[in-house]
Design the sequence.
DNA sequence: CAGTGGTCTAGACCACCAA
DNA sequence: TGGTGGTCTAGACCACTGA
């Protein structure tokens, strides 16, 4: 299918696939959300142009549901640490309770980034240590531990590298670093995982596509 | 409604409001996406807990469809500039063509941030200069020029402040700065606006809520 | 005006969950 | 097992677009 070409209309698609309009509309809505097609009221549905993605300096990884495969993780440490105020709040823990922390390094296309995962001790016990070398923690939760995940909140900020992070990322201290924090809950809303990922500032971009719509639905906010 | 309390089921709501299940489901899907309710297959629909939002250091502004009101913009400059390679590509311009650039400062809760907007000259001519002092460019496009907007792509990165940005943000050179780039198109996919916003690194977080779902739908990726 | 996507009705069946 | 949300059928009407 060529960019800009028009798809058959919904009724035609429904007949083609022998279903009614509703599943067709759901599928098209999905494709629309994924940016593969563009729907125009009164005109039709079109294959999306190969949007000139803002040219990215360099790929360094993926955060979210999908996961870059084939990249190895270098295991740094596993520790049991007291939950600080914020984390105790997120994990709904009593003050003084502890969490398990995993620290890992990962290299994608030559650029290293550092990942720190915090999870409840009971959950951490179920993690197979060898899985940590080839999977993201989200993958482990979903595919290995079979935990259906729900919403995930991320926050992105620019910080200055401290000595430890600078060492891991192989940059100078005080250089800008992109820090992505991730608060993950299961389908019932129970806290499962908190992670921090540190990326080299000059080699990473976080891309967001905001919803179409005429006023509502901004999914992201800077605070 | 108290957090965690259960809503009537869909059929009941449909009868209450005298509509069928479909609009009820659409409304609930919207509330779900906005994080106000949580839907659980086989159990019911519940008012969302007041999720302990990861405590934000400080609010500095909002990017997206919605807009912080009542904050003034300090107009810095309006210029006609040649479109660089990337921008020419986004705006589908011939090499050598020009764009209009507006530079403004904005202060929210004591923290300044700097906004640079690029737009086609023809569009820029339609912008009322006095509107620039109290509205975001998105607001101007939507509310003043009545341009229905479509998708918006944002990229977030951590950069080091150069002398100019450092001056505007009142920080030291080389300190980390959050740069948010925004590629805005109208409903037909035509390029309308490109903007850069610079925020103090230590006072700004970009928040993203990723979709629920069991595998698909990651809306954001780090590249 | 005809054709399109957006929304709706009034049902139906399935998948999941808790008791 | 009964109740829930998830999905579907087979229609209908409306709102927007372009000729």
Sequence:
């Amino acid at each position: 299918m060529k960019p800009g070409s028009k798809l058959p209309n919904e009724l035609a698609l429904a007949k083609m696939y022998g279903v009614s309009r509703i599943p067709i509309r759901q599928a098209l809505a999905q494709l629309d959300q994924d940016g593969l097609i563009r729907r125009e009221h009164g005109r039709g549905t079109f294959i999306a142009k190969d949007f000139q993605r803002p040219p990215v300096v360099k790929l360094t990884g993926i955060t979210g549901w999908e996961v870059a495969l084939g990249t190895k993780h270098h295991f740094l440490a596993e520790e049991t640490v007291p939950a600080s105020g914020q984390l105790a709040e997120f994990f709904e823990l009593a003050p003084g309770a502890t969490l398990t922390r995993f620290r890992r390094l990962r290299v994608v296309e030559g650029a290293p980034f550092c990942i720190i995962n915090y999870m409840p001790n009971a959950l951490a016990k179920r993690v197979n240590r060898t899985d940590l070398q080839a999977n993201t923690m989200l993958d482990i939760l979903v595919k290995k531990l079979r935990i259906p995940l729900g919403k995930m909140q991320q926050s992105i900020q620019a910080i200055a590298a401290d000595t430890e992070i600078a060492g891991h990322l192989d940059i100078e201290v005080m250089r800008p670093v992109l820090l992505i924090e991730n608060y993950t809950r299961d389908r019932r809303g129970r806290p499962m995982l908190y992670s921090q990922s540190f990326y080299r500032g000059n080699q990473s971009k976080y891309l967001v596509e905001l919803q179409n719509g005429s006023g509502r639905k901004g999914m992201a906010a800077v605070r």
In short: Residues 10-47 of chain B form a domain with the Arc Repressor Mutant, subunit A fold (CATH 1.10.10.10). Strands of chain B lie at 37-40, 44-47, 73-82, 98-108, 111-120, 149-160, 176-186, 191-200, 206-210, 220-222. Chain B has a mean pLDDT of 80.
